[in-house]
Each structure stands twice: as structure tokens, then as C-alpha cells.
Amino acid sequence: GQNIDQPTEMTATEGAIVQINCTYQTSGFNGLFWYQQHAGEAPTFLSYNVLDGLEEKGRFSSFLSRSKGYSYLLLKELQMKDSASYLCAVVRSNYQLIWGAGTKLIIKP
Amino acid sequence: GAVVSQHPSRVICKSGTSVKIECRSLDFQATTMFWYRQFPKQSLMLMATSNEGSKATYEQGVEKDKFLINHASLTLSTLTVTSAHPEDSSFYICSASTPGERGVLDTQYFGPGTRLTVL
To answer: B-chain residues within 8 Å CB-CB of A99?
Structure first.
């Protein structure tokens, strides 16, 4: 079957670093997305990984290990505006996405 | 960056009526468009995938006669909710994709969503 797991909720402090994990079991793999979604809004693209390793984009980095079925999103220098849900999604062989339930990140001052 | 628009952003209708939602890619040609619905505090649920000029592929459990999808051009896809009922009230989001540098659909650009309320 298809399964994507990520923590339901995480809390972090402004200025700190947080790592959001995502594990997956899917039939076929064509990459993994991370999206940010603020309440009541559509998701915003953050990153796409298809090869193993770490990809850095400013304050956000994303890591993938295909052999372990594992990815994480690393957020540095947290800001209050980073409070949102973070969605992990795996691309199936037919390019459709399977979505995780999302991790709600709460940033405290 | 790529921009996807949806219209309307919000619609309230009576039970039994049909509602059409448009999804447009404004500055790129989208070979594939996806339609999602999202219930409060839940993840996105893929409803169907549409490729320009061909019939949409619906996910299991999604009624194709109720949710009509038309992908008439590389920049426009429409979702029509026919004979809407209160349980169809939801946030409907479209996304558009096109092959990237890596030869796969390496990103999806999302529209802002349409909030449907059926009375």
C-alpha cells in the first residue's frame, strides 16, 4: 500500500532550528516534495528531491534517503511567519502525488 | 515564478445546483492539471488528474459523473460539481504541472483554492 508518515504537530522557538521528518512506503518513486500551507490557503512549493542527499535553499533545506524511505525538512532561524503546516508528498510513477497528513509547526517567541 | 489562478475564490450555492470552477495557468503551459479537495484540518485529497485533450483520470471513490473535469487547453481546466449537496462543501484546489529540467513533473504550482459552501 501507500503510506506517508509525519508528525502531527511540533513546537519550536523563534530563532531556533527544527527538523520535520517524513517516512514513506510507496509503489514507485519519482521524487518527494515539501510544501508549506498556511491555514485557509493553498500549499506553497518549498522543495523537490529526487536524488539522495541534502538540498539547501536559504533558511530551508531538504534531505532524502531513498533506500530508507526517509526525508526531512530543516528550517533554520525560525520566524513567527514560519508557523504553518508542512506537507510531505511523494511522486508516484504516474506523476501523481501521495500526500502526508501534514505537520503543524507552532513557533513560540 | 509560475502563477495559477482559480475562479471563483468563494461560492455559495443552493443544494441541487451545479458549480463550475476554473483553473488557469497564467504564464506557462500546463500539460497536466490536478484537482484536489481539502477538508478542515485534513491533508489534500487528489480527486483527478487531467491531461490536455484527454479524459481525466479519477481517483478511486470519486464520482466522475458528479465531478466533471474538462481540460480544453494547455492553460485551462474546469471542474464542475453537478447537483451539489451540503456534503460537497469543501476547499477545492487545482494545481498545474509541466515537465521540468529533469524531465519529470518536478513541481506543481497550486491555485489559491475555491471555497464551496452548499446550503
So the answer is: 43-46
Question: What is the rounded distance in angstroms from the CA atom of residue A13 to the CA atom of residue A11?
Answer: 7
Residues of chain A positioned with their CB less than 8 A from the CB of B107 = 33, 45, 48
- Alpha-carbon distance of A10 to A22, in angstroms, equals 13
Beta bridge partners of B13: B118
Distance (Å, whole) CA A17 – CA A8: 18
Task: With beta carbons less than 8 A apart as the criterion, state whether B33 and B71 touch.
Answer: yes
* pLDDT of the residue at A93: 67
| Chain segment A12-41, per-residue pLDDT in tens | 999 999 999 999 998 788 889 899 988 777
How many CB atoms are located within 10 Å of the residue A72 CB?
Answer: 19
Which pLDDT tens digit goes with each residue over A47-93?
A: 889 899 999 989 999 999 999 999 999 999 999 999 999 999 887 76
Determine whether the interchain pair A97/B34 forms a contact, defined as Cβ–Cβ distance below 8 Å.
Answer: yes
